[in-house]
Write a structure and sequence with these properties.
By secondary structure, this protein is of the alpha+beta class. The chain folds into 2 domains: 112 residues, no CATH class; 70 residues. It contains 4 helices and 11 strands; from the N terminus they run E-H-E-E-E-E-E-H-E-E-E-H-E-E-H. The longest helix has 17 residues. The radius of gyration is 23 Å and the shape is elongated.
């Protein structure tokens, strides 16, 4: 398991910093996010009050495609027969196939086989490239949930952002002016080497 390249908690109170550093560390380990989060900067100021977590995530490897877990073969009747090697992405794959080919043209005779009735001229190999899941989306949801746990109790006014491996999460008891939040977030992102 890869460790975070950069992890720092800033708080005006030394004891508070140590406690939040331990909480953040424990939550990231519990959610198995240490392998995903590359750099993390947490800033807490109870006087404002504000909690900011900003950082970067490691690349998740891109979308999962049908070819990543199933073998696609054409039969003599013009159908594509998929042999499923891993059922993890079966449900999202079926949804993608139904959307593209219609529910009436997709059969599942058993849990390890799917048959797609193709129209004349359809290439069965095109099925291999259909994206069925993006693991990065689930990881981002897990990260935001973890940050909600780490943030101080009662900080219910939240703002979050994620794009291209960069994220931030801001929480407060109060509504904060947009320009104040932007300036504070920019400062925390700069500490992890990112500018938006």
């Amino acid at each position: 398991m890869a460790a975070l390249e950069y992890f720092r908690v800033e708080c005006a109170e030394e004891k508070g910093r140590d406690v939040y550093e331990q909480i953040a560390n424990d939550v990231l380990l519990d959610f198995d996010l240490v392998r995903v989060v590359e750099r993390l900067q947490i800033f807490i100021d109870p006087k404002v009050p504000i909690f900011i977590a900003a950082g970067t995530m490691r690349q998740s490897g891109g979308p999962v495609r049908v070819s990543d877990f199933a073998e696609v073969n054409a039969d003599e009747e013009g159908r594509a027969v998929l042999s499923i090697g891993d059922e993890t992405y079966l449900a999202p794959m079926l949804s993608a196939l139904w959307e593209r080919y219609g529910k009436e043209n997709v059969d599942q005779p058993d849990r390890f086989s799917v048959v797609v009735h193709l129209a004349a001229g359809d290439d069965p190999r095109a099925i291999e490239e259909i994206p069925v899941a993006d693991p990065g989306e689930g990881l981002y949801r897990d990260l935001i949930y973890a940050l909600q746990i780490i943030a101080p109790e009662g900080f219910k006014v939240r703002r979050e952002y994620q794009k291209g491996g960069v994220f931030y999460y801001v929480a407060s008891e109060n509504t904060l002016p947009e320009d104040v939040v932007e300036a504070m977030v920019a400062g925390e992102l700069k500490k992890v080497g990112v500018t938006l």
